[in-house]
# Entry
Amino acid sequence: MATCEMCGRTGDIVTAEIESVDLKVCMTCAKHGTIKKRSVGSNPSLHSSRPPIKEVPEFSIVPHYAALIHAARESKKMTQEDFAKFLQEKENLVAKWEQGTLKPNLDTAKKIGKVLNINLIEKEEMSDSSPVRSKKQDEFTLGDFVKIRKRN
Ligand SMILES: [Zn+2]
# Structure
């Protein structure tokens, strides 16, 4: 009998990804994560759950990443070399980040953030949305305005 790796219950066990770890868990615990496959029986409609809707908020590296990385690394008393090794990156890359001449990519920024306990990623301001909104207002013609006034 399979046992849930989270709560120890036995019974219908599925493989679920919970906090990016694959665990064999019961259906109740599986709700905390994403069910990958049922190890007992097979019901395609159950485990082929729709892929997570990719939200489009764009993430970008904070503008002051260079200073952040530099300060956080120093406070951890790591040399650029240590830090590079830790990240399995090239030392000259670290130097470039700290000089602000090269932006780490998002994945690397996440790694750096974890190691140094800082946040290098920000949600890009949807600055595009305001021009769109004002454009709509422009499309609101005088004719529309008159119609609304008549209706009132
Ligand atoms: Zn469980």
Summary: Residues 65-75 form the longest helix (11 residues). The first strand starts at residue 13 and ends at 18. The radius of gyration is 25 Å.
